[in-house]
User: Fold Transcriptional regulator from Levilactobacillus spicheri.
Amino acid sequence: MKIERLIAIVMLLLENETMSAATLARRFNVSKRTILRDMDTLNLARIPIYAVRGANGGFGIMANYKFDKRLLTVTDLQTILTALTKLNDWTLDDQTRLTRDKLRTLLPQVHDPANLSVNDTPTTGRQHLAALRKTLLAAIQRSVLVQITYVDRLGKQTQRRIEPYQLAYRNASWYLLAYSLERNAFRTFKLARIVKLAVLEAPFSKCPLPPTEQPAPTDFKLVKLTVLVKKDVRDKLIEGIDTGPLVEMDQAHYQTTFVIPDNEYGYRYVAEFGTSLQVRAPAAFITHYREWLLQIVRLNGQ
Assistant:
Protein backbone atom coordinates (compact mmCIF):
# COMPACT_ATOMS: atom_id res chain seq x y z
CA MET A 1 0.00 0.00 0.00
CA LYS A 2 2.78 2.48 0.86
CA ILE A 3 4.66 2.16 -2.45
CA GLU A 4 1.39 2.65 -4.36
CA ARG A 5 0.57 5.72 -2.25
CA LEU A 6 4.03 7.23 -2.81
CA ILE A 7 3.75 6.73 -6.57
CA ALA A 8 0.29 8.30 -6.57
CA ILE A 9 1.52 11.29 -4.51
CA VAL A 10 4.34 11.96 -6.97
CA MET A 11 1.93 11.76 -9.91
CA LEU A 12 -0.48 14.17 -8.19
CA LEU A 13 2.26 16.66 -7.35
CA LEU A 14 3.54 16.57 -10.92
CA GLU A 15 0.02 17.48 -12.09
CA ASN A 16 -0.70 20.12 -9.41
CA GLU A 17 1.41 23.08 -8.32
CA THR A 18 0.85 22.39 -4.61
CA MET A 19 -1.40 20.16 -2.51
CA SER A 20 -1.98 20.46 1.23
CA ALA A 21 -1.27 17.63 3.67
CA ALA A 22 -4.95 17.61 4.66
CA THR A 23 -6.06 17.19 1.04
CA LEU A 24 -3.60 14.34 0.46
CA ALA A 25 -4.58 12.72 3.76
CA ARG A 26 -8.26 12.67 2.75
CA ARG A 27 -7.39 11.50 -0.76
CA PHE A 28 -5.59 8.41 0.58
CA ASN A 29 -7.56 8.05 3.83
CA VAL A 30 -4.52 8.33 6.07
CA SER A 31 -3.47 10.80 8.77
CA LYS A 32 -1.66 14.07 8.04
CA ARG A 33 1.25 12.68 10.06
CA THR A 34 1.49 9.78 7.60
CA ILE A 35 1.59 12.25 4.67
CA LEU A 36 4.41 14.17 6.39
CA ARG A 37 6.34 10.90 6.78
CA ASP A 38 5.69 10.18 3.07
CA MET A 39 7.19 13.57 2.17
CA ASP A 40 10.30 12.72 4.18
CA THR A 41 10.52 9.39 2.35
CA LEU A 42 10.28 11.11 -1.05
CA ASN A 43 12.96 13.62 -0.06
CA LEU A 44 15.23 10.74 0.98
CA ALA A 45 14.61 9.29 -2.49
CA ARG A 46 16.02 12.57 -3.90
CA ILE A 47 12.70 13.80 -5.22
CA PRO A 48 12.79 17.60 -4.61
CA ILE A 49 9.73 18.18 -2.45
CA TYR A 50 9.22 21.71 -1.13
CA ALA A 51 6.73 23.12 1.37
CA VAL A 52 4.75 26.38 1.14
CA ARG A 53 3.48 27.93 4.36
CA GLY A 54 0.22 29.83 4.79
CA ALA A 55 -3.50 29.38 4.18
CA ASN A 56 -2.95 28.38 0.54
CA GLY A 57 0.22 26.43 1.23
CA GLY A 58 1.05 22.79 0.81
CA PHE A 59 3.65 20.53 -0.79
CA GLY A 60 4.97 20.62 -4.33
CA ILE A 61 7.75 19.32 -6.59
CA MET A 62 10.36 21.74 -7.94
CA ALA A 63 9.30 23.00 -11.38
CA ASN A 64 12.64 22.11 -12.99
CA TYR A 65 12.55 18.54 -11.65
CA LYS A 66 13.36 15.93 -14.26
CA PHE A 67 13.16 12.22 -13.63
CA ASP A 68 16.63 10.69 -13.60
CA LYS A 69 16.59 6.96 -14.14
CA ARG A 70 19.93 6.73 -12.33
CA LEU A 71 18.01 7.39 -9.09
CA LEU A 72 16.34 3.99 -9.40
CA THR A 73 17.75 0.53 -9.80
CA VAL A 74 16.28 -2.08 -12.11
CA THR A 75 14.66 -3.69 -9.09
CA ASP A 76 13.11 -0.34 -8.11
CA LEU A 77 11.65 0.09 -11.60
CA GLN A 78 10.28 -3.45 -11.62
CA THR A 79 8.60 -2.83 -8.25
CA ILE A 80 7.02 0.42 -9.47
CA LEU A 81 5.85 -1.22 -12.68
CA THR A 82 4.25 -4.05 -10.70
CA ALA A 83 2.36 -1.52 -8.59
CA LEU A 84 1.30 0.50 -11.64
CA THR A 85 0.14 -2.63 -13.42
CA LYS A 86 -2.17 -3.38 -10.51
CA LEU A 87 -3.30 0.24 -10.17
CA ASN A 88 -4.03 0.39 -13.88
CA ASP A 89 -6.76 -2.23 -13.56
CA TRP A 90 -8.45 -0.14 -10.88
CA THR A 91 -8.12 3.36 -12.34
CA LEU A 92 -8.45 2.69 -16.09
CA ASP A 93 -6.66 5.98 -16.51
CA ASP A 94 -4.89 6.74 -19.81
CA GLN A 95 -2.25 8.84 -18.03
CA THR A 96 -1.42 5.90 -15.77
CA ARG A 97 -0.95 3.69 -18.84
CA LEU A 98 1.30 6.35 -20.40
CA THR A 99 3.38 6.59 -17.21
CA ARG A 100 3.71 2.81 -17.09
CA ASP A 101 4.87 2.68 -20.71
CA LYS A 102 7.44 5.44 -20.10
CA LEU A 103 8.87 3.54 -17.14
CA ARG A 104 9.11 0.38 -19.24
CA THR A 105 11.45 2.20 -21.64
CA LEU A 106 13.86 2.79 -18.73
CA LEU A 107 14.38 -0.94 -18.17
CA PRO A 108 17.19 -2.72 -19.99
CA GLN A 109 15.99 -5.18 -22.61
CA VAL A 110 17.30 -8.10 -20.56
CA HIS A 111 14.84 -7.16 -17.82
CA ASP A 112 11.72 -7.41 -19.93
CA PRO A 113 8.85 -5.89 -17.90
CA ALA A 114 6.52 -8.36 -19.62
CA ASN A 115 7.99 -10.90 -17.21
CA LEU A 116 6.25 -9.04 -14.38
CA SER A 117 3.04 -10.70 -13.27
CA VAL A 118 0.20 -9.36 -11.13
CA ASN A 119 -2.58 -11.82 -10.40
CA ASP A 120 -5.52 -9.40 -10.15
CA THR A 121 -8.29 -10.99 -12.23
CA PRO A 122 -11.31 -8.65 -12.18
CA THR A 123 -14.59 -9.99 -10.83
CA THR A 124 -18.00 -9.16 -12.33
CA GLY A 125 -18.59 -6.59 -9.59
CA ARG A 126 -15.25 -4.90 -10.21
CA GLN A 127 -15.90 -4.83 -13.95
CA HIS A 128 -19.18 -3.02 -13.23
CA LEU A 129 -17.38 -0.48 -11.03
CA ALA A 130 -14.68 -0.03 -13.67
CA ALA A 131 -17.36 0.77 -16.28
CA LEU A 132 -18.98 3.27 -13.90
CA ARG A 133 -15.63 4.96 -13.23
CA LYS A 134 -14.82 5.24 -16.92
CA THR A 135 -18.22 6.77 -17.75
CA LEU A 136 -18.13 9.15 -14.78
CA LEU A 137 -14.57 10.26 -15.52
CA ALA A 138 -15.59 11.13 -19.09
CA ALA A 139 -18.61 13.06 -17.77
CA ILE A 140 -16.39 14.94 -15.30
CA GLN A 141 -13.92 15.88 -18.04
CA ARG A 142 -16.74 17.06 -20.33
CA SER A 143 -18.74 18.77 -17.52
CA VAL A 144 -22.07 17.14 -18.42
CA LEU A 145 -24.95 16.09 -16.17
CA VAL A 146 -25.60 12.47 -15.29
CA GLN A 147 -28.59 10.71 -13.78
CA ILE A 148 -28.06 7.89 -11.31
CA THR A 149 -30.27 5.36 -9.60
CA TYR A 150 -28.86 5.15 -6.08
CA VAL A 151 -29.48 2.75 -3.19
CA ASP A 152 -28.78 4.15 0.29
CA ARG A 153 -27.67 2.18 3.35
CA LEU A 154 -31.28 1.44 4.28
CA GLY A 155 -32.01 -0.04 0.85
CA LYS A 156 -34.11 2.92 -0.36
CA GLN A 157 -33.75 3.50 -4.10
CA THR A 158 -33.92 7.03 -5.57
CA GLN A 159 -33.06 8.79 -8.81
CA ARG A 160 -30.70 11.76 -8.72
CA ARG A 161 -29.61 14.28 -11.34
CA ILE A 162 -26.10 15.35 -10.47
CA GLU A 163 -23.15 17.41 -11.66
CA PRO A 164 -20.11 15.10 -11.29
CA TYR A 165 -16.91 16.71 -9.99
CA GLN A 166 -14.43 14.19 -8.62
CA LEU A 167 -13.73 10.47 -8.13
CA ALA A 168 -11.99 9.38 -4.93
CA TYR A 169 -10.68 6.05 -3.61
CA ARG A 170 -11.04 5.70 0.18
CA ASN A 171 -11.22 2.77 2.58
CA ALA A 172 -10.95 0.31 -0.32
CA SER A 173 -14.06 1.83 -1.97
CA TRP A 174 -14.72 4.30 -4.81
CA TYR A 175 -16.74 7.47 -4.24
CA LEU A 176 -18.10 10.28 -6.41
CA LEU A 177 -18.23 13.91 -5.26
CA ALA A 178 -21.09 15.60 -7.10
CA TYR A 179 -23.56 18.46 -6.85
CA SER A 180 -27.11 17.14 -6.39
CA LEU A 181 -29.73 19.20 -8.24
CA GLU A 182 -32.47 17.76 -6.01
CA ARG A 183 -30.63 18.67 -2.78
CA ASN A 184 -28.97 21.85 -4.09
CA ALA A 185 -25.79 20.81 -2.31
CA PHE A 186 -22.66 18.73 -2.75
CA ARG A 187 -23.06 15.07 -1.89
CA THR A 188 -20.73 12.04 -1.84
CA PHE A 189 -22.01 8.88 -3.52
CA LYS A 190 -20.53 5.41 -3.14
CA LEU A 191 -20.07 3.86 -6.59
CA ALA A 192 -21.03 0.39 -5.35
CA ARG A 193 -24.50 1.77 -4.53
CA ILE A 194 -25.10 3.16 -8.03
CA VAL A 195 -27.25 0.57 -9.82
CA LYS A 196 -27.93 2.58 -12.99
CA LEU A 197 -26.14 5.46 -14.70
CA ALA A 198 -27.12 7.60 -17.67
CA VAL A 199 -25.21 10.51 -19.21
CA LEU A 200 -27.68 13.33 -19.97
CA GLU A 201 -25.36 15.26 -22.31
CA ALA A 202 -26.52 18.54 -20.73
CA PRO A 203 -23.51 20.76 -19.97
CA PHE A 204 -23.08 22.57 -16.65
CA SER A 205 -20.75 25.26 -15.36
CA LYS A 206 -18.57 24.13 -12.51
CA CYS A 207 -18.68 26.07 -9.25
CA PRO A 208 -15.99 26.09 -6.53
CA LEU A 209 -15.69 22.87 -4.55
CA PRO A 210 -16.39 22.93 -0.81
CA PRO A 211 -13.39 24.10 1.28
CA THR A 212 -10.85 21.28 1.19
CA GLU A 213 -9.30 22.16 4.52
CA GLN A 214 -12.47 21.34 6.42
CA PRO A 215 -12.73 17.72 7.61
CA ALA A 216 -15.30 15.70 5.72
CA PRO A 217 -18.46 15.10 7.77
CA THR A 218 -18.76 11.60 9.19
CA ASP A 219 -21.57 9.69 10.84
CA PHE A 220 -19.27 7.50 12.91
CA LYS A 221 -16.80 7.84 15.75
CA LEU A 222 -13.11 7.10 15.32
CA VAL A 223 -11.47 5.27 18.23
CA LYS A 224 -7.89 4.32 19.03
CA LEU A 225 -7.59 0.60 19.66
CA THR A 226 -4.92 -1.14 21.69
CA VAL A 227 -4.52 -4.66 20.32
CA LEU A 228 -2.46 -7.79 20.85
CA VAL A 229 -1.59 -9.34 17.50
CA LYS A 230 0.20 -12.55 16.56
CA LYS A 231 3.50 -12.12 14.77
CA ASP A 232 2.43 -14.27 11.81
CA VAL A 233 -0.09 -11.59 10.70
CA ARG A 234 2.24 -8.61 11.20
CA ASP A 235 2.60 -8.03 7.46
CA LYS A 236 -1.15 -8.08 6.88
CA LEU A 237 -1.70 -5.57 9.68
CA ILE A 238 0.89 -2.97 8.66
CA GLU A 239 -0.02 -3.24 4.96
CA GLY A 240 -3.68 -2.59 5.73
CA ILE A 241 -3.59 0.24 8.27
CA ASP A 242 -1.27 2.78 9.90
CA THR A 243 -0.23 1.45 13.29
CA GLY A 244 1.69 2.77 16.25
CA PRO A 245 4.98 1.16 17.31
CA LEU A 246 4.93 -2.64 17.42
CA VAL A 247 5.98 -3.60 20.94
CA GLU A 248 7.17 -7.19 21.34
CA MET A 249 5.26 -8.76 24.24
CA ASP A 250 6.56 -12.33 23.94
CA GLN A 251 7.89 -14.72 21.29
CA ALA A 252 4.52 -14.88 19.52
CA HIS A 253 2.84 -11.47 19.98
CA TYR A 254 3.15 -7.73 19.39
CA GLN A 255 1.10 -5.00 21.04
CA THR A 256 0.24 -1.92 19.00
CA THR A 257 -2.42 0.74 18.40
CA PHE A 258 -4.39 2.00 15.42
CA VAL A 259 -7.40 4.24 14.76
CA ILE A 260 -10.55 2.75 13.28
CA PRO A 261 -14.29 3.59 13.03
CA ASP A 262 -16.51 2.33 15.84
CA ASN A 263 -19.02 0.88 13.41
CA GLU A 264 -19.58 -2.21 11.26
CA TYR A 265 -16.70 -1.28 8.95
CA GLY A 266 -14.32 -1.32 11.92
CA TYR A 267 -15.75 -4.56 13.29
CA ARG A 268 -15.40 -6.26 9.90
CA TYR A 269 -11.77 -5.18 9.66
CA VAL A 270 -10.90 -6.51 13.12
CA ALA A 271 -12.80 -9.76 12.44
CA GLU A 272 -10.62 -10.42 9.35
CA PHE A 273 -7.78 -11.34 11.74
CA GLY A 274 -9.86 -13.98 13.52
CA THR A 275 -8.08 -15.40 16.56
CA SER A 276 -4.81 -13.67 15.59
CA LEU A 277 -5.87 -10.30 17.02
CA GLN A 278 -7.24 -9.43 20.45
CA VAL A 279 -8.68 -5.98 21.21
CA ARG A 280 -7.56 -4.85 24.67
CA ALA A 281 -8.99 -1.32 24.78
CA PRO A 282 -11.15 0.73 24.79
CA ALA A 283 -13.92 -1.08 26.66
CA ALA A 284 -16.73 0.59 24.69
CA PHE A 285 -15.41 -0.71 21.35
CA ILE A 286 -14.97 -4.20 22.81
CA THR A 287 -18.62 -4.16 23.95
CA HIS A 288 -19.89 -2.99 20.56
CA TYR A 289 -17.67 -5.49 18.70
CA ARG A 290 -18.84 -8.36 20.93
CA GLU A 291 -22.51 -7.43 20.35
CA TRP A 292 -21.90 -7.40 16.58
CA LEU A 293 -20.28 -10.85 16.74
CA LEU A 294 -23.18 -12.19 18.82
CA GLN A 295 -25.63 -10.98 16.17
CA ILE A 296 -23.74 -13.06 13.60
CA VAL A 297 -23.78 -16.10 15.89
CA ARG A 298 -27.54 -15.75 16.50
CA LEU A 299 -28.20 -15.24 12.78
CA ASN A 300 -26.30 -18.41 11.85
CA GLY A 301 -27.36 -20.46 14.85
CA GLN A 302 -30.70 -21.47 13.41
